[in-house]
């Protein structure tokens, strides 16, 4: 196969690298990891999740993944001028090959790093429930961080077009599943609630940490629950806890008690928090 | 942003090109076009479909797309040694940028070309209905050729693991929609039937040509219809008409009357056929 990009013809290995199955088919898995002072936070848990997804989907991962990521992070952190904070993205692809049928071959790996501001944004976000795309809890790819992310890109655009910052997605059964790039927690009737993993939501690493910190009920959240929620926040690896200021234009007031307590708990436990001056808090699970 | 691949750190433009949103998020649209003797068959219709999808999804396309694709095809066809037949893939991405929120910027374009055998395979295929992933007809991305194709890769693997060649996908409503990379036609009670576009199926270019050639009923196909189909075939740009030999291990016999007549009709009309010695027939719509 040969490839053409920007007026240049690429052949052989150069073409294969430039257009592997990650690009041609979104055929890959990824993790986004918060880096603080050159240290990748909870990297073991991220790689464990990646490995579990790969096993469930029978997706081949490169050998010595953890060691390779360590090397890549060190190289990239230096190349970026050693910022205090950054986002590490580990992208594992199914390697080279056109067509849906995957042939046995070397899996691909691309690691990226981007500096983040020293202090994460903590402004509460406006969320909007979008009608589509919807999550199919029976889809084996739901709850997996695949590179086929265009449905979430589309959901985000629909939400931002309506003046919100993030989209909330429903399942095909009509219940509320998750945000476009974060897990959702709401307080209803005084109880902290989050959708269970069997609703097709991502098994967020920050979500799991939150469940260990505060009594939380894992149950289906209806659109009616959302409409009367007293408080709501999102969780993700880059953002930690991020309160919602509005859902579907209904104001929720400032950061609520539950989000403040959860952010403090995460911070005390040594990881991502909210309003923690050392800064490990922001975007992506 | 910097990127790490194969032990090498890429920075600046090199990194941006290597890891644009096509790779990071499957954030793009594509077309696969059959090339015969250096000529891209029905290229105008492919680019019209790409343009329509881009407009519907508010996805930015590069300027002078048709002219650029012409240049790329000429360069690539020569680079590949001027094969009689080939597959041209036009991949339009949303360009550079991390995160779900798309920033305004130059759209990306990567064109690939791969030589195909002079004669396409015409062996009837074995198809298998897979339980998941399912198509959501209300999803604005259903029926679009997005680069987020991992669900179809997964469906293909599930089918091939069970001894079939291709997967047939159902909708979340339980009816049969399309094959993993082709449209589906079946003969039931003597009528040629194909699912309507509102079932979330791809508006296949070969599908549209077939509808003009033979009286076909566009209606929902149930799993029960499929179980008693007298004949079935798939249509795609690379394969033209490809008969099904089996559905869920039920033999359908050799190529049926409808598929042979349709293949002859396509061939006479100057495009992809089936068992046409000049060869323009095979994979992808």
Overview of the structural elements:
Two copies of one chain form a homodimer. Chain A has 285 residues and is an alpha+beta fold. Helices cover 28% and strands 30% of the residues of chain A. In chain A, the strands form three sheets. In chain A, strands 7, 8, 9, 10, 11, 12, 13, 14 and 15 form a nine-stranded mixed beta sheet that branches. Chain A has a four-stranded antiparallel beta sheet with strand order 4-3-5-6. In chain A, strands 1-2 form a two-stranded antiparallel ribbon. In chain A, a hairpin with a 2-residue loop joins strand 3 and strand 4. The two termini of chain A are 36 Å apart. The interface between A and B is large, with 73 and 71 residues. Strand 6 of chain A pairs antiparallel with strand 1 of chain B, so a sheet runs across the interface.
Please provide a brief summary of the model.
The structure is a homodimer of 285-residue chains. Chain A has 285 residues and is of the alpha+beta class.
Quaternary organisation of the protein chains: homodimer
Number of helices of chain A: 8
Approximate helicity band of chain A: 25-40%
Biggest pleated sheet of chain A: 9 strands, mixed
What overall form of chain A do the CA principal axes indicate? globular
Taking the alpha carbons of the first and last residues of chain A, their distance comes to: 36 Å
* % residues in beta strands of chain A: 25-35%
Order of SSEs of chain A:
EEHHEEHHEEEHEEEEHEHEEEH
Record field, number of beta strands of chain A: 15
């Amino acid at each position: 196969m040969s490839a053409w990009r920007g007026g240049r013809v690429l052949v052989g290995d150069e073409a294969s690298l430039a257009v592997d199955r990650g690009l041609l088919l979104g055929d890959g898995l990824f993790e986004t990891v918060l880096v603080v002072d050159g240290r990748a936070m909870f990297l073991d848990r991220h790689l464990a999740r990646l490995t579990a997804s790969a096993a469930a989907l029978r997706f081949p991962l490169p050998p010595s993944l953890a060691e390779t990521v360590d090397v890549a992070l060190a190289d990239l952190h230096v190349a970026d001028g050693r910022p205090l904070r950054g986002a590490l993205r580990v992208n594992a692809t199914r390697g080279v090959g056109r067509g849906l049928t995957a042939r046995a071959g070397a899996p691909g790996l691309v690691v990226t790093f981007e500096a983040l501001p020293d202090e994460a944004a903590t402004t509460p976000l406006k969320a909007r429930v979008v009608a589509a795309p919807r999550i199919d809890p029976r889809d084996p790819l739901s709850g997996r961080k695949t590179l086929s992310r265009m449905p979430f890109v589309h959901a985000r655009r629909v939400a931002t077009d309506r003046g919100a910052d993030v989209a909330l997605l429903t399942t095909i059964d009509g219940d509320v599943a998750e945000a476009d790039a974060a897990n959702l927690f709401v307080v209803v009737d005084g109880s902290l609630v989050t959708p269970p993993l069997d609703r097709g939501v991502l098994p967020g690493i920050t979500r799991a940490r939150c469940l260990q910190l505060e009594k939380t009920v894992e149950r289906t959240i209806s659109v009616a629950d959302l409409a009367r929620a007293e408080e709501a926040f999102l969780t993700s690896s880059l953002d930690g806890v991020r309160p919602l200021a509005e859902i579907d234009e209904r104001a929720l007031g400032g950061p609520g008690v539950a989000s403040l307590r959860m952010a403090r708990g995460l911070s005390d436990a040594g990881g991502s928090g909210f309003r923690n001056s050392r800064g490990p808090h922001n975007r992506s699970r």
